[in-house]
Amino acid sequence: MAEQEKTIGKAKLLGIVQEAAAVAAQSFGLKIWGIELLGGAARPIVRIFVDTPWENKTVPFVKPLTREEKSRQKSVHPMAKNQESTQPQTENFSEESGVSVDDCAEISRMIGISLEVEDIFADAWILEVSSPGLERTFYETAQMRPYIGHPLDVTLESAHSGFENRKKFRGTLKSVESNTFTLILDTPEGAECTIDFNTVRKAHLVHLFPETTLSKTNSRK
Fold first, then answer.
1. Contact indicator for 216, 162 with CB cutoff of 8 Å
2. In 10 A of CB 162, how many CB atoms?
3. pTM over 0.90
4. DSSP secondary structure letter of residue 136
5. Residue-averaged pLDDT of the chain
6. Which of these, 79, 80, 134, 187, could form a disulfide with 207 (CB 3.0-4.6 Å)?
């Protein structure tokens, strides 16, 4: 690891990467979703996620149709084929990210040049630029607001004070405040759990894939 990197520390290093990445992303009308520094001193990995601006955006959640539901739709009586369907016509796995592979490649090139000039890494290093993906990780509560009504997986640094010896939670995002958020847990009781984001180790979306198996009864029809 370079002496400069040892001296400035991880926080300063993140700041340098953040500044270079923000300038590059802004030229494409994008924002930095999150930055991760991984690996050891020998070959560090700089992982940058870019996305369209999420302020004032809402992402409606539509549960994907199961294979059985799709099969029923295809078995509609001929007289009803011309009637307007009341079922969703598309599977909303995720909103359009608006981030192309070409965008990521060009942003990566721009960031790479900027960080080479800064000379913060002594040896070889890896730069990865991509969109946050279907099961995006959240880095601040502001990013959560468009996803109210979506399922989340959350892991805490330590056990929640209101749920003894429990660090992992899955539930539907109900609300988001300045630095806290509330889940409706996937339990029969539908208990609510409010979490301070400062206590979160990782929080990410849960992507629901459509059910691809049919019961034996239906498969014989």
1. no
2. 11
3. no
4. P
5. 82
6. 134
Closest CA to 143 of 19, 30, 33: 33
Is a pLDDT exceeding 90 seen at residue 118? no
Q: Bigger pLDDT: 21 or 163?
A: 21
* Residue 170: other Cβ atoms inside 10 A: 13
| Predicted local confidence at residue 69, as pLDDT | 67
Separation CA 28–CA 213 (nearest Å): 41
CA distance 203 to 170: 10
* H-assigned helices in the chain: 3-26, 67-74, 101-118, 216-219
Helix, strand and coil in the chain, % to nearest 5: 30, 25, 45
Closest CA to 197 of 160, 146, 150, 147: 160
User: Residues 177-208, buried b or exposed e (16+ Cβ, 10 A)?
Assistant: eeeebbbbeeeeeeeebebebeebeebbbeee
Rounded CA gap, 56 and 128, in Å?
Answer: 28
What whole-number distance in Å separates Cα of residue 4 and Cα of residue 166?
41
